[in-house]
Recover the amino acids of this structure.
């Protein structure tokens, strides 16, 4: 189990910048440009690690803590997601822990915004919290439906396609639709990249970071792409997970590739939503998912 | 000495202490230390009583006075459930008394003659309510002791009109609750009963419980009305929607902060105690067929869900520190009611199916564990708010900012408390919320509505996090506000003294201990259930405690849900080290600088993004929930 956990972490650390690079390249091609090389994010991270680390504001300690927490929390979640094997850290917790650890990733961004204390970072922090408030219930409903169908909250039972019940899997298909339509919000890409990459508030919570700490936050954004795709795959398209380990990893990476392509294409042709439009959108998704939950409880 | 005698001595100590502090009230410090000594002695006696009961079973009941004409007797009986509540009261009371000694310096215009005596009698009243087994006269006496003294304490700063109004509203609601509860007991009482060698009076808890099966068969309508009156009466006390909003948000901010901690952390739990007693312990096991537990479970769980959702949304709008905490008390009581409702709903199918009984048990564990945890972290939060009020003289979150530089210890305590109430893993709030989620999510196979309740509870948890990020971040982080800069210029250190820090440190340590070793709390609750085998509580006590292989983890009975904090600490620790190593790889150098504010740096007090502006996008859509924030003071 520890070996699989280490492999997961290594996979995310080494693979996440590659998928980000792919996303940037394909966005560029869609927008009729050449775009950067696919390996550019690796060079960006290496460059940032050597730059000067400017600590601003009155809360330097909190600024440091937020940066370390950002990457640490997403890597901890990565050990709870099956990436070609069974769930590595199954003994640590169940689906409820997964939901709350994902919240911890958001808390890192919130602390970043609060520690800097400038107007832009506080606006960004407020928007990040509002996005978290409206997105978290969607994932929670998906996990709850899977738990009800599987009769257990354990991650190896839930992250196993349990969302499709045995009779007509209506609730599972509805949740598949809801999650596909919300995936952009979870990974923080257009049209829902309201918190970070915003030209309106100068990157919001990340405004005052530079050098290695900015590298950690960039890593968080790249890792979110892989980890949330991993959760989506484990919930809705887990087939091929039980094969021989190297083969299942390759199948997993191919599925992530397909999801990243979908995310990229949607991101490259959409403008950014305002926060109130995003809230209304996700509230609507929440109502649909409650309908799916009612169906799941009645056995559909 | 037996547990019952220990509690009686504790009550006597409190009464004696009240008289002494009244006589010596001219000197604030002397009165404070005397009150602390009296509280410490009574807490020591109380915890001894509770510990004895938890370790070796319920003590013998002691009847001090019998009034057969009125059908009541002063009978003190301490079983496992009472022991847990006694432990909670004792801990928070002694810490609150210690905090008061130096906190009362804040009130320059008021003496302490109207504080310390009432404080001691208030604590005595609470001990009485959870130990007495009478449901009419002596219940009334202890209830009035608790209510009238807390009315005086809420009204302490009587020169402010809104405090007097708040105290009057509180008194009215509590008297209504008392009347409803006594009416319910009158409806259910049948007649005196002889059990073993003692004769129990008409209005004794066990006598009512004896007569209940017959009454359920003959006139179940009367029983339904009586239980409804119990629900509303104890619900008013606990702060259930819609009754809680009528008195809680006004009363808790009005009282001095140590008393607010007692009100929010402990007193509303006596309402929860009443609900647990009447819906689970009052009903004998053989009456389960005629007891409409599915309906009551639905009602309690539904009211709990509405309370947690509406209460927390109302809290999101608040900008005054103690008023925000008061609304959150309403919200968290909703979680406790949800756990209790899940237990009541699942207990009847549970008697035929052991998995479901395990879920009912875990729902009850969650409710009782959340009661303990809420007492801990809410008291800590009120002590923090008291420290902030002591340092800045305001409750307005909009005027604060950057306090962490001047009050580092209080800041860390507030952070721990905020993480606990928001349910961050490794803090105690997560462990109890986990238990409630397990019961509701897995219990929805039997009671279909519980799954939806669980999803609303998870949504509300995110809203709680938002509210406490605001509470902590806007006051301690963010840039130093002009008010804070002004206060800091006058005093070198804004941090409160060591006497106000020690209670906070102890409570924060408790939050961490229960968060990292939740199995400890589970053992405590299991012992309590083992020692209160009466009514439906006996069925819950039958479930064995599930243990994980690790040292500290908790799991449901059939292993379908688990949480191991120690593994999580290890993994999170390793990842933090990896993140730290990555930052060191490039050999970058650090430099300190000012934040970029587009050139509007120094006079930025006018464009301060304060508590009022946070989450404006969501606040637009929740105007309909009520809970208007008080204007800036």
């Amino acid at each position: 189990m520890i070996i699989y956990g280490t492999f997961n972490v290594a996979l995310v650390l080494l693979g996440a910048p590659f998928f980000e690079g792919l996303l940037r390249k394909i966005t560029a091609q869609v927008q009729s440009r050449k775009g950067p090389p696919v390996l550019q994010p690796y060079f960006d991270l290496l460059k940032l690690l050597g730059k000067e680390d400017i600590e601003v504001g009155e809360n330097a300690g909190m600024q440091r803590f937020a940066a370390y927490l950002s990457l640490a929390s997403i890597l901890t979640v990565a050990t709870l997601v099956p990436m070609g094997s069974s769930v590595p850290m199954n003994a640590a917790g169940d689906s409820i822990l997964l939901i709350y650890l994902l919240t911890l990733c958001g808390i890192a961004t919130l602390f970043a915004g609060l520690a800097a204390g400038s107007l832009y970072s506080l606006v960004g922090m407020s928007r990040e919290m509002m996005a978290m408030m409206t997105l978290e219930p969607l994932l929670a409903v998906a996990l709850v439906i899977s738990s009800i169908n599987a009769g257990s909250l354990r991650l190896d039972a839930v992250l196993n396609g349990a969302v499709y019940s045995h009779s007509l899997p209506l609730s599972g298909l509805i949740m598949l639709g809801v999650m596909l339509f919300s995936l952009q919000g979870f990974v923080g890409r257009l049209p829902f990249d309201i918190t970070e990459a915003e030209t309106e508030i100068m990157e919001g919570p990340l405004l005052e970071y530079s050098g290695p700490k900015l590298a950690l936050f960039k890593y968080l954004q790249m890792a979110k792409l892989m980890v949330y795709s991993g959760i989506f795959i484990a919930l809705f398209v887990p087939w091929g997970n039980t094969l021989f380990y190297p083969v299942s990893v390759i199948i997993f990476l191919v599925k992530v590739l397909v999801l990243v392509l979908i995310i990229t294409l949607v991101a490259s042709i959409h403008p950014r939503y305002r926060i109130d439009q995003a809230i209304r959108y996700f509230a609507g998704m929440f109502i649909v998912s409650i309908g799916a939950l009612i169906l799941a409880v009645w056995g559909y | 000495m037996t547990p019952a005698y220990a509690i009686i001595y504790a009550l006597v100590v409190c009464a004696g202490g009240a008289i002494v502090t009244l006589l010596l009230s001219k000197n604030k410090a002397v009165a404070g230390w005397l009150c602390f000594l009296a509280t410490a002695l009574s807490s020591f006696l109380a915890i001894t009583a509770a510990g004895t009961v938890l370790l070796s079973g319920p003590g013998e009941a002691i009847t001090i006075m019998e009034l057969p004409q009125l059908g009541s007797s002063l009978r003190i009986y301490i079983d496992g459930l009472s022991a847990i509540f006694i432990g909670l009261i004792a801990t928070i009371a002694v810490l609150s008394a210690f905090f008061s000694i130096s906190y009362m310096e804040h009130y320059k215009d008021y003496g302490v003659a109207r504080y310390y005596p009432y404080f001691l009698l208030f604590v005595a009243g609470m001990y009485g309510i959870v130990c007495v087994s009478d449901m009419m006269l002596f219940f009334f006496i202890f209830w009035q002791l608790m209510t009238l003294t807390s009315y005086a304490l809420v009204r302490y700063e009587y020169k402010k009109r809104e405090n007097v109004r708040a105290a009057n509203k509180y008194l009215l609601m509590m008297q209504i609750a008392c009347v409803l509860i006594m009416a319910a007991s009158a409806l259910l009482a049948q007649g005196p009963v002889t059990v073993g060698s003692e004769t129990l009076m008409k209005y004794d808890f066990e006598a009512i419980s004896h007569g209940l099966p017959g009454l359920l068969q003959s006139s179940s309508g009367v029983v339904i009305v009586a239980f409804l009156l119990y629900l509303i009466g104890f619900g008013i006390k606990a702060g259930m929607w819609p009754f809680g909003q009528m008195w809680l948000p006004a009363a808790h901010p009005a009282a001095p902060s140590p008393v607010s901690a007692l009100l929010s952390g402990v007193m509303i739990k006596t309402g929860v105690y009443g609900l647990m007693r009447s819906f689970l312990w009052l009903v004998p096991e053989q009456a389960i067929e005629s007891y409409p537990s599915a309906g009551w479970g639905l009602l309690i769980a539904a009211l709990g869900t509405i309370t947690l959702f509406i209460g927390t949304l109302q809290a999101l709008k608040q900008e005054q520190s103690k008023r925000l905490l008061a609304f959150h008390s309403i919200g968290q009581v909703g979680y406790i009611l949800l756990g209790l409702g899940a237990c009541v709903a699942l207990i009847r199918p549970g008697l035929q199916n052991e998995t479901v009984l395990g879920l009912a048990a875990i729902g009850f564990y969650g409710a009782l564990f959340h009661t303990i945890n809420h007492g801990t972290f809410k008291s800590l939060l009120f002590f923090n708010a008291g420290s902030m009020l002591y340092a800045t003289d305001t409750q307005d979150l909009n005027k604060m900012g950057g306090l962490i530089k001047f009050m580092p210890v209080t800041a860390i305590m507030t952070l721990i408390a905020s993480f606990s109430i928001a349910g961050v893993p490794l803090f105690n709030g997560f462990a109890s919320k986990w238990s409630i989620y397990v019961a509701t999510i897995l219990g929805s196979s039997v009671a279909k509505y519980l799954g939806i309740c669980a999803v609303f509870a998870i949504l509300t948890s995110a809203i709680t996090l938002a509210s406490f990020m605001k509470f902590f971040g806007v006051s301690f982080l963010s840039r130093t506000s002009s008010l804070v800069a002004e206060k800091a210029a006058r005093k070198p250190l804004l941090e409160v003294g060591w006497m106000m820090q020690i209670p906070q440190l102890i409570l924060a340590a408790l939050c961490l201990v229960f968060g990292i070793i939740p199995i400890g709390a589970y053992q405590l609750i299991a012992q309590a259930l083992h020692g209160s085998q009466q009514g439906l509580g006996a069925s819950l006590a039958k479930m064995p405690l599930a243990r994980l292989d690790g040292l500290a983890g908790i799991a449901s009975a059939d292993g379908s849900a688990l949480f191991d904090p120690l593994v999580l600490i290890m993994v999170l620790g390793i990842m933090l080290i990896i993140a730290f190593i990555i930052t060191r790889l490039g050999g970058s150098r650090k430099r300190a600088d000012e934040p970029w504010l587009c050139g509007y740096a120094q006079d930025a007090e006018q464009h301060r993004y304060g508590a009022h502006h946070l989450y404006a996008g969501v606040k637009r859509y929740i105007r309909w929930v009520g809970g208007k924030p008080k204007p800036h003071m």
Summary: Chain B has a mean pLDDT of 90.
